[in-house]
Amino acid sequence: MNPRLRHWREAATLLLAAGTGARPGRSALGPCDYEVLLLKRSSRSGFAPGAHVFPGGLVEAADFSAAWLGLLPASPLCGLGSVKPPPAGSGRAPIFATDRRQLGSPLPGEVAFRICAIRETFEEAGILLLAPGSGPGESGGAGPLPAESLLSAAEVGEWRRRVREDAGCFLQLCRHLGCVPNIWALHEWSNWLTPVGRAGPGGRRYDTAFYLCCLGERPPHASEDEREVTACLMTSKSLATQSFVQYQQSADTIQLTLSRPREIRVWSSPPEAIELFKSREISLAPPQFYELCRLCNFSSLHELHKFSSDRALEGCECWMPIMLTASDGLIQLLPGDELYPEDPDYTGEMNTVMSTDKMVEDLMKEGSTFHRIVIKNINSLALYVNIQAKYKHMNPLMINTDCSDYNSRL
């Protein structure tokens, strides 16, 4: 862990996209020929309880194990492409820039964080992103090896239990199958830090590497782990009283015996997921909302894959949202916004609080350079971005989940 970011626990998460095949996108926000995987966190979770998130979790020491070097290709980055030097005046995100050898690990962070994301995806959703032999994978789609074709259902369940209890068992699983984690199918996408004041129990805050992986034409089967993830199927509002109904679960539907709510699947296109959030059928944290709005720029899986694989060579910024409390809501300020502090308090030790008696609408009228998420309540978010994107990235579409539109008043 980088000493400068000692207040965070390192983590990795995966934006997993798969083609819809012949089924067209159904969102009013526009067509989309792919879907992403969102998992519902347990209501007992210490961080973001009940929220829908991309699969991922904390990095474990086993993800940095030197034993991986006996399975992966022998090269400085195990066959991964080198990221270009950052633009003048910028630096590589600390989570990636840290020299892991000085921390006792021979495995580069770029490799270990990908292993973590793949391991967590298996633990939480039962999806194995593996490549045969020692890799590296091909430059096209990830083409995961279906878990059900490698292991029986009972074996999948047993291995998930073992990996969940001991992350080192993921290496044993790969050896058992004669495969390796398909780290080459994961493209560096973004890096988010938990804001000061938004820590979980015990002051836990996270420095999370986000990766993007594009699969083939059909989404693989996913299933909940019954611990961290209570359901892979997104739950509709009508299931709030689920103790009074009987339902059957399949790979992509919920069937109720007493009512027929809107079907909500484990895989949803980014526009569909935002519509579900807008109708309060699912809950999203601001980073997930932001990244889904960013994905809404791409209606084609092929286009998304080409963009992500080309752009990943540029690296990414490290973002820590700064909370600004207004009289009628909150604003998460992101780097580049005119109100973002020049020297943000990364540690929280300065106890700096940004607040104003002004209303959100007044702040929007007075401003001109925006990179912010306006939060009115848990299901009312709005994005305002007019800065130049860095690292050849693409700004998210500016989407509001309520009826307000401050842009028309600027």
From TrEMBL:
Q: Which InterPro entries match?
A: NUDIX_hydrolase-like_dom_sf, NUDIX_hydrolase_dom, NUDT19
**What keywords sit in the KW lines?**
Hydrolase, Magnesium, Manganese, Metal-binding
SUPFAM superfamilies, A to Z: Nudix
Please indicate which superkingdom the organism of origin belongs to.
Answer: Eukaryota
Protein's GO biological process:
butyryl-CoA catabolic process; coenzyme A catabolic process; malonyl-CoA catabolic process; medium-chain fatty-acyl-CoA catabolic process; propionyl-CoA metabolic process; succinyl-CoA catabolic process
* Reactions mediated catalytically: propanoyl-CoA + H2O = propanoyl-4'-phosphopantetheine + adenosine 3',5'-bisphosphate + 2 H(+); malonyl-CoA + H2O = malonyl-4'-phosphopantetheine + adenosine 3',5'-bisphosphate + 2 H(+); (9Z)-hexadecenoyl-CoA + H2O = S-(9Z-hexadecenoyl)-4'-phosphopantetheine + adenosine 3',5'-bisphosphate + 2 H(+); 4,8-dimethylnonanoyl-CoA + H2O = S-(4,8-dimethylnonanoyl)-4'-phosphopantetheine + adenosine 3',5'-bisphosphate + 2 H(+)
What cofactor(s) does the depicted protein rely on?
Answer: Mg(2+); Mn(2+)
Q: Which residues form the Nudix hydrolase domain?
A: 7-290
Q: Which PROSITE patterns match?
A: NUDIX
> What family does this chain come from, according to its entry?
Belongs to the Nudix hydrolase family.
- Stated role: Fatty acyl-coenzyme A (CoA) diphosphatase that hydrolyzes fatty acyl-CoA to yield acyl-4'-phosphopantetheine and adenosine 3',5'-bisphosphate. Mediates the hydrolysis of a wide range of CoA esters, including choloyl-CoA and branched-chain fatty-acyl-CoA esters and at low substrate concentrations medium and long-chain fatty-acyl-CoA esters are the primary substrates. Highest activity seen with medium-chain acyl-CoA esters and higher rates of activity seen with the unsaturated acyl-CoA esters compared with the saturated esters. Exhibits decapping activity towards dpCoA-capped RNAs in vitro.
What protein name is recorded for this chain?
A: Acyl-coenzyme A diphosphatase NUDT19
Q: Which organism is it from?
A: Anas platyrhynchos platyrhynchos (Northern mallard)
